[in-house]
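[retry 2/3] DUF3243 domain-containing protein: previous attempt timed out, resubmitting with same input.
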Amino acid sequence: MSVLENWNQWKDFLGDRLHQAQNEGMNQEVISDIAYQVGDYLAKQVDPKNEQERILADLWSVATPEEQHAIANVMVKLVQNNGNS
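[retry 2/3] DUF3243 domain-containing protein: success.
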């Protein structure tokens, strides 16, 4: 099963990657930009695997670039306290 198929696993995965980036000294601006790039890639290239991802994809598709950055930043906040690292 792909990490994308289960919402909680996906959040844990993102949280782990976020903590790893922070532990390696990546600043918040770079993390935010990467989150935006990942969100844009997923929206354009990956079919949503669950209801939560479908909602995010739908929101992303109608959002302006500024709103997409906001969505990406909110996802970073959401997973900030998740993950195992």
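[retry 2/3] DUF3243 domain-containing protein: The CA atoms of residues 22 and 28 lie 8 Å apart.
[retry 2/3] clearing retry counter.
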